[in-house]
Amino acid sequence: MSHRWVLMKISRIIGLLAVVAFIVPVVSAAGIGNENDGVAGLLSQPDEYGICEYFTITQGETDTHLFNVPAGMSLLKVDLNWFTPDHSLRLEIYRSDGSLYGSYHDNSDGRLDGRTRVDISIPASGNWRIKVYGESVTGTIPYALNCNAYT
């Protein structure tokens, strides 16, 4: 066996593993129940203070999520992760009274990494609306939305 043949086989195995690593999250995220019309979902709160759920999005699509912030919270953390800076998503956060808290892009936190993180001090209690917009997306991509409220 030549050294070149072994390297070629290793390269193919690594390529197959990369394909599997990309396809499994896409297939898993696609089956979670992303609603593209209206509200994408009332984000579940298994510990009553936080969630992390996976969805998919396409170019020009807007997904709307609701997150209930209990009374007495001192911090709300919103983390939108689409895993690659090759695409661009916009995150809009609306307070429980319906007013816009802010609009954010990938580099809003100073990093171009396919992720946007926002910390909100002393959030008002009630349902906060979180919108995710597919600003520049090729095909269908997965994203994770993580919301946590802390006392």
List the helices and strands and how they pair.
Elements: H1 3-30, E1 39-42, E2 50-58, E3 62-69, E4 75-81, E5 88-94, E6 100-104, E7 115-121, E8 126-136, E9 140-150
Summarize the structure.
With 151 residues, this protein is of the alpha+beta class.
Structure, explained:
The chain has one domain (31-150): Jelly Rolls. Helix content is 19%, strand content 46%. Mean pLDDT is 79; it is low at 18-42 and 44-48. It has one helix at residues 3-30; strands at residues 39-42, 50-58, 62-69, 75-81, 88-94, 100-104, 115-121, 126-136, 140-150. A hairpin with a 5-residue loop joins strand 5 and strand 6. It is α+β, with helices and mostly antiparallel strands and 151 residues long.
The percent range for strand residues is over 45%
Element string (H = helix, E = strand): HEEEEEEEEE
Shape: elongated
Low-confidence region ranges: 18-42, 44-48
Architecture, according to CATH?
Sandwich
Strand order of the largest sheet: 1-3-8-5-6
- Say how many strands there are: 9
Named CATH topology = Jelly Rolls
| Percent of residues in helices | 10-25%
Biggest sheet features: 5 strands, mixed
Structural class, please?
alpha+beta
